[in-house]
Write a structure and sequence with these properties.
This protein has three domains: 84 residues; 115 residues, no CATH class; 308 residues, no CATH class. It contains 26 helices and two strands. It has a two-stranded parallel ribbon. α5 runs parallel beside α7, α21 packs antiparallel against α22 and α21 crosses α24. It is globular, with a radius of gyration of 28 Å.
Length: 568
């Protein structure tokens, strides 16, 4: 009887462990709070949709402050590592949202003289949300007055060239919000409410047209803002400066200065140079690596054959991953990725194919001129693509997205150091595993690795105020071997394509973080490749140092700061 009781207790204990393991595979003590927060934030931002309005800002301050207070009521010291990570990153996000709202308020206050028209429009939309009564004649009078006010404001704005770019961008968002508010009112009442339909439609059109002209003037001002100028490249951006770079690095738990990151990039570049010379010599070009690169570029496939070439590389890549048992590939992930052809317009800022669940193929179309066609084909040759098919599909972006939709979906800690760093890490690992089959393959893979080093150097030098966009373009052409049009597209998307200032450096730096963690966990024998890679993908997106904290089960403090020196 006693033995039976012991056996039952053991089984119950085992069941509890299994249950806890399953629970933590998808959840944490912070999960419920974060799910509620995302739902509340979604509801509130849909309701308070008017960008930069005080009603929206005040309500979001209350939201973020309230969840911050709830989070701090959790007993941090009792939490396991994964839950501590959720706590730290959720708090980081809430603090950052509150900071951004403080910046928004400060900038809106500085712009008050340019938006004397705003209060009445905000009040009108606020009343509309609860079916306020229409005062047609009064509203028409006010709209006409606001239309005239906008004309006066535009005359003053034409003469003022001192407004900094941050305020110009805030003004552009504010005008957009005002137009959205007015449209909401108009769509709600027009044709339905007789008084509105009698008094307002034409007056509304006049005010909306005036706001459109005001928005266009702010756009014109953005091209002539202090600190921004065209250096001949046609690319006008605004460097953020060292202090802001360091602040953003701290948010990503990267304990290096911009200068130290540039030094890391130069060391990695030196490795690439040495390997490029080896491959160049094997191709019979001595030390003329640019001649070897030229030969590789000219291996492009004919128009219409690029999808077929990509499929060949994809099949080789996935077969290699499986043969070497590098990670688990769910059958549905293999089955469901798909291809589209990239438009000529998008190729201006994305000269190379991009991926995820949808692989967007960058290759010439009939509307492109001859020069652009040749640069597109040369820049997307099979040897270059050998490094990037697995980056964009499996085990890179497509598999990342696939797994993120299935594990710990509540984690909203997206970062380019995880997204791009993981995909770049696979380029490093497959190089080590001898995935390139010929010197031409190695030249192609090294081209991309040099490109990632160059991204760190040119993006940081630009944001430190040391380089112009044209210098960045020339650097990519001369130092990496880019086609000039492709280099221009790369720099354009880096500085005016909506990417964060750290995005371009995140490829190599994030990759080096995952590579350092591989050394720590796999090379030491603590985990197999498959265990390591599967574990990373099942934690979802977050700063890489936090992935490491979970996989190594660190006892991280509540006030955790960037400290992991991953580069040796």
């Amino acid at each position: 009887m006693r033995k039976l009781l012991i056996l039952i207790l053991c089984l119950l204990s085992t069941a509890t462990v299994i249950s806890q393991t399953t629970l933590y595979q998808q959840s944490s003590e912070v999960n419920n709070l974060m799910v509620q927060y995302e739902a509340d934030r979604g509801s509130l931002t849909r309701f308070y949709f008017v960008e930069n309005s005080p009603y929206r800002r005040e309500r979001l301050v209350t939201l973020y402050s309230g969840y911050l207070k709830q989070l701090q009521q959790l007993n941090y010291e009792s939490l396991p590592t994964g839950s501590r990570v959720d706590y730290i990153l959720f708090k980081r996000n809430l603090d950052e949202q509150l900071r951004l709202l403080e910046v928004e308020k400060k900038e809106c206050d500085q712009l008050k003289i340019w938006f004397t028209i705003s209060p009445w429009i905000y009040t009108l939309e606020k009343g509309r949300t609860r079916a306020g009564a229409v005062e047609g004649q009064k509203w028409a009078y006010n709209m006409k007055a606001l239309t005239k006010d906008i004309g006066d404001l535009m005359k003053s704005l034409e003469k003022d060239s001192s407004i900094p770019i941050n305020l110009i961008r805030r003004a552009q968002g504010t005008v957009k919000g005002l137009q959205a508010a007015l449209k909401s009112v108009h769509d709600f009442y027009n044709g339905y409410d007789p008084e509105y339909t009698w008094w307002l439609p034409n007056t509304y059109k006049g005010l909306d047209s005036a706001l459109t002209a005001y928005a266009q003037l702010w756009q014109k001002r953005s091209k002539a803002a202090p600190g921004g100028k065209d250096d001949g490249s046609g690319i006008i951006g605004y460097p953020i400066g060292k202090e802001e770079i360091v602040r953003q690095l701290q948010l990503e738990f990267i304990p290096y200065t911009p200068e130290e990151l540039i030094d890391i990039a130069n060391k990695e570049f030196a490795w690439c140079d040495a390997e490029m010379l080896k491959a160049t010599e094997q191709m019979g070009f001595g030390k003329d690596w640019k001649a070897a690169l030229e030969k590789v570029k000219n291996t492009y496939v004919p128009p219409g054959k690029q999808p077929e070439a990509i499929m060949k590389l994809y099949n080789e890549s996935v077969d290699f991953l499986k043969k070497n048992n590098l990670l688990t590939i769910p059958p549905v992930a293999e089955e469901t990725w798909r291809m589209i052809m990239m438009t000529p317009e998008r190729q201006l800022v994305n000269p190379f194919f991009t991926g995820g669940e949808v692989l967007s193929v960058s290759y010439p179309t009939n509307t492109m001129d001859e020069g652009d066609k040749m640069m597109s084909m040369r820049g997307n040759n099979p040897h270059f693509s050998r490094a990037t098919v697995h980056h964009e599909l499996i085990a890179g972006h497509h598999l990342q997205g696939f797994m993120s939709n299935r594990y710990k979906m509540y984690r909203n800690f997206e970062t380019p150091f995880w997204i791009e760093g993981w995909a770049l890490y696979w380029e490093m690992l497959l190089w080590d595993k001898q995935f390139p089959q010929s010197p031409e393959d190695r030249v192609g893979m090294l081209f991309w690795r040099m490109h990632r080093c160059a991204r760190i150097i040119f993006s940081l030098n630009y944001h430190l105020g040391k380089w112009t966009p044209q210098q960045c373009i020339d650097f990519l052409v001369n130092r990496v071997g880019h086609e000039r049009a492709n280099a221009e597209g790369e720099v354009r998307r880096s500085f005016v394509g909506g990417y964060s200032p750290l995005y371009q450096l995140a490829y190599m730096i994030g990759g080096l973080q995952f590579y350092a963690m591989k050394k720590e966990l796999v090379d030491s024998g603590k985990m197999t490749f498959a265990q390591y890679h599967d574990a990373v993908l099942q934690e979802n997106a977050m700063p890489v140092s936090m992935v490491r904290a979970i996989l190594t089960n660190q006892n991280i403090p509540k006030d955790y700061k960037a400290e992991w020196k991953f580069y040796r």
